[in-house]
Design goal:
The protein is of the alpha+beta class. The protein has 3 helices and 5 strands; from the N terminus they run H-H-E-E-E-E-E-H.
């Protein structure tokens, strides 16, 4: 699903205009990004938690040349799904 498809579905379900819904969705994404950039966790009950995690430096390998590279430490955004979200996904994908 793309962002535009998400906006259309939310607009259909809420009765809001596409323009208003697009602004709301973008505001939610911006707020999550801003919070993560200040190392703040975002906990959404029944959905999951957005956070940042420090990734230690490590030695990598260039895929074409095989040259060993030093990959520096970085901070990565992570998402941990809630128990309810995991159950819903597993239930809908059960065969």
């Amino acid at each position: 699903m793309t962002k535009d498809e998400l906006v259309r579905q939310v607009a259909d379900k809420t009765g809001l205009t596409i323009k208003d819904t697009k602004n709301i969705v973008q505001t939610v994404f911006d707020t999550i990004s801003d919070s993560l950039s200040t190392d703040e966790k975002i906990k959404i009950s029944g959905f999951g938690t957005f956070a940042v995690k420090k990734r230690a430096a490590f030695k990598g390998r260039h895929p074409k040349t095989g040259e060993i590279l030093d990959i520096s430490e970085s901070i990565q955004p992570v998402f941990e799904a809630s128990k309810q979200l995991k159950e819903k996904v597993n239930k809908s994908n059960a065969t």
